[in-house]
Design a protein that fits this description.
Elements: E1 24-27, H1 67-74, E2 85-86, E3 90-98, E4 102-109, E5 114-121, H2 129-138, E6 154-160, E7 163-170, H3 177-183, H4 191-210, E8 218-220, E9 237-239, E10 258-261, H5 286-290, H6 298-313, H7 326-337, H8 342-347, H9 361-370, H10 380-393, H11 404-408, H12 411-425
Antiparallel strand pairs: 1-10, 2-3, 3-4, 4-5, 5-7, 6-7, 8-9
Length: 431
């Protein structure tokens, strides 16, 4: 999701709800540079010399549409305030993001005198994220870009009135790809930046798979009746996430260093069977809807990888942003990619017999990839190579999709994308 677009550890969105389908990623660069996250999400590191100033609390007299407000009501979050000290070490500076399963806080590490991001999970949530990230860090195959995976700096547990909360400390990040594009009014990344980010996303996913994993302003809070809140499980203030990002069209190549994040629902298919996809609806692989009795695999990740690469290269998502249920998603997939496999077509209860050529692949490419570029467009040779890769990734049958290694070695990746990623990092990334 880069669908899914992008997200947790160090990012401005706390959850992408991906089993790596719904890939999130962020860029490692100084504050005056960008990061692209991803939904699946990119994000940039916060430079230590540029801490964010906080706005004064603003009173509210109604229930805000903030995840944190809902979570407080349900008793699943831990009350955290700006200026709190976590684990007797991390001084809370601001909020970076929030989601259904966690909240991300920007903090100052008092021992190392640097800024960090702390992902605080909801009460009593069982998460293997820190374990998975530590295992990925041990993977000896560093030529497959292990440096593109979020690194755990510390992990600890907090005990609050709602239960126990796991905390993961990482380098801080800034925003998601979707957020960066939205802020630029749907103008895409500069072509070289897009190529560099897409290449790094592909490399990070290949590294992930090689290691055996599927990535599967403060406001005072008041009660609706206006009476003061006295429960110890509710903080005095609710903080909306601070925007630390940058519009996509302003990101420069030296800033385009990616970090793959959010392994909260990642899993190892050889050790765990997963039938349910947690990715955003628009990025959900077709097998999760039409063949949900079969376990999800690395191929499910590949579907999301294709959608995220498309979003990096274009000015919007591959799938329509106005889809409200699974049937509409499947219909949009058919519009773009053609007929479903026969057995799936028969299962699809709301199937139709017309409208299959409404938004074919080539038209989507022209409108969302080519038209969104302010400067150069992809030439004919690169366009063919890019679409060939996308067609190999977005196949309905999971077993027919390219593997991450095959995507890594595709013509478009090797000839157009990888050289730009290596230029961004100023070193060779693959043998």
């Amino acid at each position: 999701m880069l669908g899914d677009g992008l997200a947790v550890v160090g990012s401005n969105s706390a959850d992408t709800k991906c089993c790596r389908y719904g890939i999130e990623f962020c860029v490692v660069a100084p504050l005056d540079a960008l990061s692209a996250h991803v939904a699946t999400d990119i994000a940039v590191l916060v430079e230590e010399q540029n801490p964010r100033s906080l706005k004064s609390p603003q009173p509210i007299s109604f229930t805000e549409t903030l995840n944190t407000s809902t979570d407080i009501a349900l008793g699943v979050t831990i009350p955290i305030e700006v200026n709190d000290a976590l684990n007797q070490r991390y001084h809370i500076v601001d909020k970076l993001g929030q989601g259904g399963y966690s909240t991300i806080w920007l903090a100052r590490d008092q021992e190392l005198s640097k800024y960090v991001a702390i992902k605080v999970g909801t009460a009593d949530q069982v998460s293997k994220e820190s374990e998975i990230l530590l295992k990925l860090a041990e993977n000896p195959t560093k030529q497959l870009s292990g440096h593109l995976i979020t690194q755990v700096l510390d992990h600890f547990t907090l005990h609050g009135p709602n239960g126990t909360h796991s905390c993961i400390v990482t380098a801080p990040a800034r925003c998601s790809v979707a957020e960066a594009i939205k802020t630029s009014r749907q103008i895409s990344f500069q072509p070289d930046v897009a190529r560099a980010l897409a290449a790094q996303l592909i490399m990070a996913t290949a590294y992930d798979h090689q290691a055996g994993f599927v990535h599967g302003d403060p406001y005072p809070v008041t009660r609706i009746d206006g009476q003061p809140i006295t429960s110890p499980s509710v903080p005095k203030n609710v903080y909306t996430p601070n925007w630390l990002g940058k519009p996509s069209d302003e990101v420069l190549l030296p800033e385009a260093r990616l970090l793959l994040s959010d392994f909260g629902t990642a899993f190892n298919p050889s050790q765990e069977t997963r039938l349910l996809s947690y990715t955003h609806l628009q990025n959900r692989p077709p097998e999760a809807v039409l063949d949900s009795t079969k376990p999800l695999t690395f191929s499910s990740d590949i579907w999301s990888l294709g959608l995220m690469v498309w979003e990096c290269m274009g000015s919007g998502p591959f799938m329509s942003g106005f889809l409200f249920d699974e049937n509409e998603v499947i219909a949009d997939q058919v519009d773009a990619l053609g007929s479903l496999p026969h057995e799936w077509w028969e299962k699809w209860e709301t199937r139709t017999t017309g409208g299959i050529e409404t938004w074919p692949l080539q038209r989507r490419f022209d409108l969302t990839v080519q038209r969104g570029k302010k400067t150069e467009k992809l030439d004919d040779e690169e366009s063919r190579a890019f679409l060939n890769m996308i067609k190999g990734v977005l196949r309905f049958r999971p077993e027919e999709r390219m593997t991450a290694d095959q995507v890594l070695r595709s013509d478009w990746m090797r000839k157009w994308a990888l050289p730009l990623a290596e230029k961004a990092w100023e070193r060779k990334l693959l043998d």
